[in-house]
Amino acid sequence: MAGLVQHLPNHRVTSLQNVRQVKPDANLIGHPRPVPGATKARRSGSLVCHAASSGMSATPPVPEGDVDIPLLTGLANTIEWLSDYPEFYQKRFKKFGGLFKTNLLFNPMVVVTDENEVRRLLQAEHKLVESAWPQSMHNLLGPNAILTAPAKAHKKQRQILSQAFTDAAMRLYLPTVLDVCRYTLAQWSASEEPVLFYSAARAFAFDVAATVLTGTRFDGNTLVRMREDFDVYADGLFTVPLEIPGTPYAKAVKARKNILAEIERLILDAKASNEAQSRGRKNALRLLLDAEDENGEKLTMEQLKDQILTQLFAGHETTGATLARVLPEIQKQPHILAKMRQEQAELIQEFGDDITYDVLERMPYTDAVLREVMRLHGIVDGVWRQALEDLEVQGRRVPKGWTVQLMVKQAGLDMPEFAADADRFRPERWLEDSGAPVKKEPKGFMPFGEGPRKCLGMLLAKMEMRALLAVLAREYTVELEDPDESWFQGFKPVNKLPGRVYKYQA
Predict the structure, then answer these.
(1) Is 334 exposed, middle or buried (CB count within 10 Å of its CB: 0-12, 13-18, 19+)?
(2) Could you report the per-residue pLDDT of 156-174, keeping only the tens digit for each?
């Protein structure tokens, strides 16, 4: 889901654009100062090591990087990484450039930022590399989660799950999504206290994900409780998986049990009732209950629970944070919101007041705004894969069994097409002179991933972001107290973006 690629917990993810500054900027939204040598590593040939046929050395060296002393390096690096994620990468990019070896969570690892290599290896999923998230994430997502499933299980699960995330399914979900959009903006507008938009945007995305996935609009107290459980759950995803009372991992295990109990209740209710169908509102759970693979097999209760848990987590963390990043940009550059309003006015003139799925597909400028947010402020830095055989990456060897961290966001920031002004927020870069979308996106732009594991919920993420911005541009104005507010380590505004929402008067 929106989010862009396989999703990392929001508090552990930060932009390598910020990591690679010589010094942390006072305003992490602003303009980065790249560390010399970090942005562009060598772009030599990128082939699997087949020395006999290529004539290359049978054993090219592994990349430069940390000296790996078994257990000791893994422990020291993990502590450093968890305590100061940006500084961990900043030190190594300054020393080794955009390709280096390290050890995290006791996994020998090569970090890759080159856009060609990132795309190549994502597309080679199940052939050259395989999903390799840490054990803590495996445990907390569950044995049936699609994000961590091995090749055969992943293919089977995706065949079933994708039936709930098609273009046709999005059209069924849109009325529900619009209900949540209008309710959310009305609540923000009516609030007597300043709205904390970072938290509020994530709450909106969670409400959408929960409603679309389960067909249930949770009451306010239930929503608050589930979001609190998800925050605790996310805190444990990248930790040492020791269930010691009081640790983030142990708390996350307890939160997972709470969430799964609520999900199981919803599944049982859905099985016993046809209410959702009789109302004419479809939801993903109803589609998943009926979905079958090529052999006629359906998801079991345990598989359903793990998949809905995964999609709830992935669907709200990245989408909400992305929407929160939009608000400062459209306030700092008022012409952006003005163009979004003009686009909506033209759509109303052509199609009437209704926001249909076809209308959402005809918003090139709003889409350009979202693309630029995902390029410059991407929420997911990278994904973890394991080498299934010895690989050659930029003339260096990644031994079989090692983890490869593919830095998707940095690949986008380094796109040569935008090198002249890569640090500027400029939606127009995604449009032709005619105002139509660019005919072909640069290959380094992969906010939803690439290959067999490309984000399953991409269409839902795009639809809900477009829908919220369409309603906002037509009916409301957002005013942040400080659109230049600093973002802690690049991923969380220090004051959570306080501001207010007013009805728009044309």
Answers:
(1) exposed
(2) 888 888 988 999 999 999 9
Tokens of 411: 């690949």
Partners of 492 in the beta sheet? 488
Q: Is 113 within 8 Å of 369 (Cβ atoms)?
A: no
User: pTM surpassing 0.90?
Assistant: no
Query: And the tokens for 158?
Result: 């995706």
Nearest-angstrom CA–CA distance, 160 and 442: 31
* Structural tokens at position 420: 């002249």
Least confident of 33-42, 82-91, 347-356: 33-42
Mean pLDDT over all residues of the chain? 84
Residue-wise pLDDT for 291-306, tens only, equals 887 888 888 888 889 9
Instruction: Count other Cβ atoms within 10 Å, centred on residue 189.
Output: 16
CB atoms inside a 10 Å sphere around CB 413: 25
Q: How far apart are CA 475 and CA 469, in angstroms?
A: 10
Determine which helix (DSSP H) or strand (DSSP E) holds 346, and give its type and residue range: helix 334-351
How would you label 224-257 residue by residue, b for 16+ Cβ within 10 Å and e otherwise? eebbebbbbbbbbbbbbbeeeeebbbbbbbebbe
Question: Shortest CA distance to 252 belongs to which of 265, 243, 261, 262?
Answer: 243
The domains located in the chain, with CATH, are 10-497 (1.10.630.10)
Is residue 283 within 8 Å of 267, Cβ to Cβ? no
If you count them, how many residues does the chain have? 506
CA separation, residue 112 to residues 16, 24, 379, 399 (Å): 12, 22, 18, 14
Q: Are 358 and 490 in contact (CB under 8 A)?
A: no
What secondary structure does DSSP assign to 157-179, as a single string? HHHHHGGGSSHHHHHHHHHHHHH
